[in-house]
Amino acid sequence: MSFLVELLTKQGLITAFAVVGAIIYLSHLVSKYLTGGRIHGSAIAILAGLGLAYAGGVITNGQKGIADIPMFAGIALLGGNLLRDFAIVATAFEVDVVQARRAGLLGAFALGLGTIIPFVIGVAVARFYGYTDAVSLTTIGAGAITYIVGPVTGAAIGASSPVMALSIGVGVLKAILVMIGTPFIAPYIGLDNPRSAMTYGGLMGTVSGVTGGLAATDPKLVPYGALIATFHTGVGCLVGPSILYFTVRAFTGG
Amino acid sequence: MTIYGVALLAICTLIGVGLGDLLGMALHVKANVGGVGIAMVLLISARVWLAHTGALSAGIKLGTEFWATMYIPIVVAMAAQQNVLSAAGGGPMVIIAAVLTVAACAAVVALISRIDKGGRA
User: Which of A221-225, A239-243, B33-37 ranks highest by mean pLDDT?
Assistant: First the structure.
């Protein structure tokens, strides 16, 4: 037993390939036989991944889900930013240039809305829960943009640690909701073509959420959503500690 | 050669992410600004150029398409290492803020795609 654990630990990334392969295989069986193909296998696999992450969190009390268990540490490498970005770029190989160019302006417009709307909602909810200072309001609002914009903004304007944690919490939960929810809401919001995928990428923003959600909806849409969404965090980090903070401060007066 | 495709992808990614970092620095932002997006545009341009000059070999395609098809498994691995426990345990404020944000943005997507379709029809 300990031999096996040691083997799997030493072969980290290779173990991750096998584990993820098994998850996807089982998810496709579940999709086919338990849902009659109504729920996409990829969506179930992502949900299973989140379930494992929850279990990992309960077992180890760590922050990296199942990857905190040494035997599954390779999952962190396989699903980390490095390979994720590499694979997202690769999906661009199939992009229809004409489509992408035609929707570029719409994507940029969506990007603007996707920064302002979450921020305003985040600030409003934080205000409702009793936060009144500009720094905390801005940090929590920024977290609603993405879970990277939140802490980057908070660090820049000097937010307290509990507020930063809340801000990250909002962002991570948003990413997870988008990941899970996209395939279910797709038919109702017209998310079935490259144009709407770019709008979606701009509005939802969170790269992990958007690309994960689109992958489970229709893998062909992933590159279009990602193309816009990857600018989201950068734009958010740009306006969060500056324009947005100053605006909030003008309202709170402190 | 398959490695040509993988190398092309790697070069586009390196240049894109590098430019994104520089852009972040130039704008005094502690983040990468659109690096992956820039890399995607580079790769799209490279493919168009290769196809145009007739140099788009099966190997190059295989090398990039392999990584594109690995995308979903990578997303599953990404999901498996999220801090789900703390996200779920963040209390009502976190849940309300996240749910409202996602709902509002989804509604705007629906609105835009409806206007967009109407406008083109």
Answer: A221-225
A85 domain residue, yes or no: no
* Closest residue of chain A to B90, computed from CA coordinates: A169
* Residue A88 located in a structural domain: no
Which of B48, B77, B94 comes nearest A49 by C-beta?
B77
Q: What is the mean pLDDT of chain A?
A: 85
What is the extent of the structural domain holding A75?
Answer: 2-79
Please tell me the predicted confidence (pLDDT) of residue B121: 43
User: Are A18 and A66 within one domain?
Assistant: yes
Mean pLDDT (chain B) is: 84
Distance CA B76, CA A48 (A): 8
Q: Does B68 touch chain A (CB under 8 A)?
A: yes
Nearest CA in chain A to B23: A234
Q: Verify that A106 and A147 share a domain, yes or no.
A: yes
Please say if the pLDDT value at position B120 is more than 70. Answer: no
